[in-house]
Amino acid sequence: MSSQPPHPALLIPGPIEFDDAVLQSMSHHSESHVGQPFVNVFGDVLAQLRKLFQTSDPASQPFVLSGSGTLGWDQVAANLGEPGDEALVLHTGYFADSFADCLETYGVKATQLKAPIGDRPQLDEVEKALKEKKYKILTVTHVDTSTGVLSELKALSELVHRVSPDTLVVVDGVCSVGCEEIKFDEWKLDVVLTASQKAIGCPAGLSILMASGRAIEVYKTRKTRPTSYFGSWNNWLPIMQNYEAKKASYFATPSPQLIRALHTSLTQILSRPLEQRFADHRNMSQKIKKAIGDLGLKQLSSKPENQANGMTAIYLPEGITPPDVLPSLTKKGIIFAGGLHKQIAAKYIRFGHMGVSVTDPNRTDIDKAIAALKESLAEVGYKA
Amino acid sequence: MSSQPPHPALLIPGPIEFDDAVLQSMSHHSESHVGQPFVNVFGDVLAQLRKLFQTSDPASQPFVLSGSGTLGWDQVAANLGEPGDEALVLHTGYFADSFADCLETYGVKATQLKAPIGDRPQLDEVEKALKEKKYKILTVTHVDTSTGVLSELKALSELVHRVSPDTLVVVDGVCSVGCEEIKFDEWKLDVVLTASQKAIGCPAGLSILMASGRAIEVYKTRKTRPTSYFGSWNNWLPIMQNYEAKKASYFATPSPQLIRALHTSLTQILSRPLEQRFADHRNMSQKIKKAIGDLGLKQLSSKPENQANGMTAIYLPEGITPPDVLPSLTKKGIIFAGGLHKQIAAKYIRFGHMGVSVTDPNRTDIDKAIAALKESLAEVGYKA
Q: For the Aminotransferase class V domain, which residue ranges apply (chains A, B) (predicted)?
């Protein structure tokens, strides 16, 4: 039985429901951020992240900073970008606009390649764009939390390496790391950034990032100083290397409780083959998408190959808006999220299905959610 | 009885020991960052911070961001500084060097006014410096965690307002907010920044900052865009205002668990008169400093008016270094910190006395620590 009090199942695209043991780690007694017990745990976390991202290249470098996923964008812009550099931002929703805004803040020129809502830029369009201008950085949102659109990383990275081999491939994996397959080395990715509170299954408050040896080299050979202090790899690189070597080190105080919780969560994730975890998410996603279709509802992402496996963005029936169904769902013990894509926010809702709600066979969150959605729609007069 | 397992008392200058209820809030079940229950709690926290900082001016603006205390420096540098601006940095230890480095990262020219180790710049020296050049920002470390030197804010701020009235008075209160008296309005401070894990008594992971109406005006009338994204008030100001008005709002995902724990901690702090809390810390500090003197030991900060009330930096006897005593202290259930000021790190240790270890009458941490220090020194042959 869960040690958590009864509460509505949080099925938004992050934060997600957390395992009891992870939440218990959050209340770990106070300990020194430079004491050996904590240093050992932080070191283990960095090694675990290498496994989660499927990188065995010793030149790859994990970073875990106090902050939100957004801080990963600042790390990319401030450490890999220099004023005047060019970035190609592949747009599949709200988060590309924001990442572009972040890049521009640091003086990097961001060119967005947009797709219609629910779709993603096609490879031939990306190829054309890469041939028109030399880009230092290409960014792609693996899963855009505003639309549920999944990007295809493997073929995209192959294309970039073929057409524009010096361009760094930067992946926003905030809504994908831990539930979508990512092979960092094999796919030759340069940065994958994420946050703790989605498919990794640890409460919010950590910016998590993996950089390739090539990205670290670009950072090391930059001409100007990184234009952030808190997010600067000048400050954090030696700290992360020391922690991983189990040596105490200090730049800014990390959060021992969050790192302990992340350790618990990563230990659980890595106790099973990753392939199985990704398959669980794919299978549950298929089941949900079929149920949504059976209800006569459409997804924002209309092509199967564009559909995320950890969330579903669902168009409401004509004339029904999120406030018509979300409070009724909450009364039934289910929390979904409203729309986030500005142009269509009032037309859709978002259903997150990541982590323990998917992988823990004792939980019935998903089945309850589908039933509750059906009932709530019926209450406002909708018939499938 | 405490719900925490037995563990050594953490008496470093942060993180500190935490109250059971605060740690229990850290394991709060998952909730939406835009759901009303959490929004209400975040709103309450912002209102509580106004009380803690003793500001009733509605133009004052609190900020709570995921990050460490260091992120407060970035907020100051990126939102109040513009490239080419001048800052006068009062130096009382390690943290002034770092704050200066942060300001320079954002293109602000930092001039340091240094004092001998254990002392602070004198008011006549500050006056002279302010008359020599026009500074947009003056920064002062209220308590430098590396030296235990306390700065005098009231007279300093009066001086700045008299001699250089346009200069913003920025206080690094990381090791002071919650244990040293701060009257934000009455002393006409412009920024006080801090972190959660010291005298506020909430686990690490939050950057907490109060800005005056005047500081917000300087930010609003800046000519260039803030040069940070994650730390930009362009992004956070509307969010903080919405949260305080109990309206859901989104820029980047906050940490509901940390905000819940902060709420618990601030509720405890504000349940008693602040004056009493500060007096408790002063009285305990006096007791500790007397015991240190009785042991024949000297403090880094030799003048009583320079001595912090939440920590004590203690010179070890000649020939004894931190590794000679810290492990032995840990065996006795007491964790102190080593030296941090680079020039003298091997010569001293630091004893933190903030929060529940001071205010909870059921705890005996401090008495045990003094006894353990005496024993550990005796073990290596030192006699008072």
A: 27-342
Residues A314 and A345 grouped into a single domain: yes
Asked whether residue B116 is domain-assigned, the answer is yes
- ipTM surpasses cut 0.90: yes
> What are the tens digits of pLDDT across the range B213-255?
999 999 999 999 999 999 999 999 999 999 999 999 999 999 9
Best A66, A73, A79 residue to mutate vs chain B (most B CBs within 10 Å): A66
What are the two backbone dihedrals, phi and then psi, of residue A12, each rounded to the nearest 5 degrees? Answer: -100, 165
Please give the tally of structural domains in chain B. 2
Helix or strand holding residue A12 (H, E): none
Res A1: pLDDT: 59
Contacts of A26 in chain B (CB under 8 A): 26-27, 257
- Chain A residues whose CB is inside 8 A of the B256 CB are 15, 203-204
Chain-chain contact of A18 with B29 (C-beta, under 8 angstroms): yes
Q: How far is B205 from chain A (nearest CA, A)?
A: 5
What DSSP assignment string belongs to B312-352? EEEEPPTT--HHHHHHHHHHTTEE-EE--SGGGGGGEEEEE
Mean pLDDT, residues B358-378: 97
Q: In the listed set A248, A270, A292, which residue is the last one of a domain according to the structure?
A: A270
Does residue A57 belong to any structural domain of this protein?
yes
Residues B136, B190: Cα–Cα separation, whole Å: 12
Q: Inform me whether the pLDDT recorded for B78 exceeds 70.
A: yes
B376 Cα to chain A: minimum distance (Å): 19
Say if CB B80 and CB B223 are below 8 A apart.
no
Q: Are residues B255 and B371 in the same domain?
A: no
- Token pair listed for A272: 């099973």
How far is CA A242 from each of CA A125, B182, B324, rounded to the nearest angstrom? 43, 37, 23
Instruction: Note whether residue B1 is domain-resident.
Output: no
Distance CA B78, CA A118 (A): 36
Interchain pair B68, A66: CB under 8 A: yes
Q: Quote the tokens at residue B380.
A: 């290596």
CATH of the domain at A316: 3.90.1150.10
User: Mutation test of the interface with chain B: which of A257, A260, A334, A354, choosing the one with the most B Cβ atoms within 10 A?
Assistant: A257
Whether A204 contacts chain B with CB within 8 A: yes
Q: For the domain that residue B70 is a member of, what is the CATH number?
A: 3.40.640.10
Whether the CB-CB separation of B204 and A66 falls below 8 Å is answered with: yes
Last residue of a domain, one of A270, A295, A324: A270
A285 & A140 share domain? no
Task: Indicate the Cα dihedral angle A237, A238, A244, A245, nearest 10°.
Answer: 160
pLDDT at A383: 87
Q: Do A15 and B256 touch (CB under 8 A)?
A: yes
Per-residue pLDDT reduced to its tens digit, A183-222: 999 999 999 999 999 999 999 999 999 999 999 999 999 9
Residues A84 and A114 in one domain: yes
Q: Are residues A182 and A306 in the same domain?
A: no
Residue B267 touches chain A, beta carbons under 8 Å: no
A3 in a structural domain: no
For A10, which of B30, B229, B231 is closest by C-beta distance? B30
Average pLDDT over residues B275-289: 98
Q: What is the DSSP letter of B266?
A: H
Probe site for chain B from A12, A255, A264, A350 (most B CB atoms < 10 A): A255
| Enclosing domain of residue B263 | 20-270
**Mean pLDDT value across residues A244-251:** 97
Whether the Cβ atoms of residue A92 and residue A151 lie closer than 8 Å to each other? yes
> Binding site annotation covers A260?
no
Residue A364 and residue A225 share a domain = no
Are A243 and A284 contained in the same domain? no
- Which positions ≥6 away from A149 have C-beta within 8 Å? A92, A93, A118, A119, A120, A141, A143, A300, A301, A306, A307, A308
